[in-house]
Amino acid sequence: MAIRPILTVPNPILKQVSEPVEKVTDETRALMDDMLETMYDAPGIGLAAVQIGVPINVIVMDLARDGEEPQPQYFVNPEILEDVEDVQPYDEGCLSVPDIFDTVERSERVKITYLDYNGERVTEWAEGLYAVCIQHEMDHLKGIVFIDYLSRLKRDRAVKKVMKAEKLKAARSEEHTSELQSRSPSR
Fold it and tell me: pTM (2 decimals)?
């Protein structure tokens, strides 16, 4: 397993529509393992493959609370079969839009179908946080990031804030690298 870099807005890959997976293979499972490790490291509760630059219909999630045993979930080619009209507002965040949170309304209950880690078909109802998270992650598969639901002004501010933070992070990393190189003995 490996921790992979998470793409952040405005990376154009995040706007790509993901492709279906023909079959769950060892390669698919290895990707899901990397995704789960990446998500835990971030830390987050959900991650779509496109967020690590692989635009295929794969999602991992873990909604376990602090102190609970991990409860990883794997979704290949997830689809919403049915949703209820009732919506719930939820304060969402996203690993591809770090440190930005805002309210998005989503169906409070959805019937989903997907292939699990072993390629078995699962059909079930998701509600509460599970429903919110699966809809959020499935949006990624369609090239939609949660800030796309916000006003243009809020969306633009969020992107600028993320870009500024990324530049600061890169500058700090460069400084750290230069400092390490200046300390290393000459040959």
Answer: 0.89
**Token pair for residue 19?**
């492709």
Opening angle at CA 91, ends 147 and 135, nearest 5: 65
CA distances from 117 to 32, 34, 60, 87, 124 (A): 8, 13, 10, 29, 16
What are the DSSP calls for 112-179, one per residue? EEEE-TTS-EEEEEEETHHHHHHHHHHHHHTT--GGGGS-HHHHHHHHHHHHHHHHHHHHHHHHHHHH
Say if residue 13's pLDDT is above 80: yes
| Catalytic sites, residue numbers | 137
d(CA 165, CA 48): 22
151: which 2 tokens? 């006003």
- pLDDT score at 66: 86
